[in-house]
Design brief:
single chain, mainly alpha, Tetracycline Repressor, domain 2
Length: about 220
């Protein structure tokens, strides 16, 4: 009986050669000389294989960067940067298959179904990183808005993947620059700013109404 890895590898080879999914599970497993039951023991469909590949690559990236000795010293900004730099390197190893899985996307604004398993994995990682940044004081804890930081990073995720897929620069240098600029802009917005100080001062004055009376305001 074939293993889950063998079935997955055979499927990847098939779609890269034929540029389409097999016509049916039956025709696919017949060439592998296994039964449909063997296939369904591991996968519910061909689409589930594609989703699994994306999820595995995402988990692999997070696990790899968190095992680095320098990881505990990284700021939240540096951790997100490390993720994206490493993620692109991981995706490069299977770029042809990544391109295939995303070309079926109906509209640029709609989230590709193949990323549905990646979203919760990335958002959990991003939220944990953001919360650590808020706890350390690196990032601003803004009522309502701080809970949306992870959504902004997911938007960066979608943008950067799309940018990389269309990047024709040597060594994908433009993607590296897009990562640096995009994540730094996001974290600049997440951090404390003069506007936060002004809002805090306004809250202080509203809590201390007696000062208004003494000042004749």
């Amino acid at each position: 009986m074939a293993t889950a890895q063998q079935i997955k590898n055979a499927y990847i080879d098939f779609v890269l050669i034929h540029d389409e999914q097999p016509k049916s599970v039956y025709s696919f497993v017949k060439k592998l000389k296994i039964s449909e039951a063997d296939f369904y023991q591991f996968y519910a469909s061909f689409d589930s294989i594609e989703k699994l590949v994306w999820a595995e690559l995402t988990v692999e990236t997070i696990s790899t960067i968190q095992e680095q000795e320098v990881w505990p010293q990284y700021s939240s900004r540096e951790r997100i940067l490390a993720f994206f730099y490493s993620y692109i390197e991981v995706l490069r190893k299977q770029r042809s298959f990544i391109l295939y899985t995303l070309k079926k996307q109906k509209g640029r604004l709609a989230m590709p179904a193949v990323l549905s398993g990646v979203k919760p994995i990335f958002e959990n990682f991003a939220e944990e990183t953001i919360n650590e940044g808020i706890d350390s004081g690196e990032l601003a804890d803004r009522k309502f808005f701080s809970k949306r930081y992870k959504d902004a990073l997911w938007m960066q995720f979608r943008f950067l993947i799309d940018f990389w897929l269309n990047d024709d620069s040597a060594g994908f240098e433009q993607t590296d620059e897009a990562i640096e600029r995009g994540i730094n802009v996001s974290f600049d917005l997440f951090q404390h700013s003069p506007l936060d100080n002004l809002l805090d001062y306004g809250k202080f004055l509203s809590r201390n109404g007696q000062f208004k009376q003494k000042m004749g305001l």
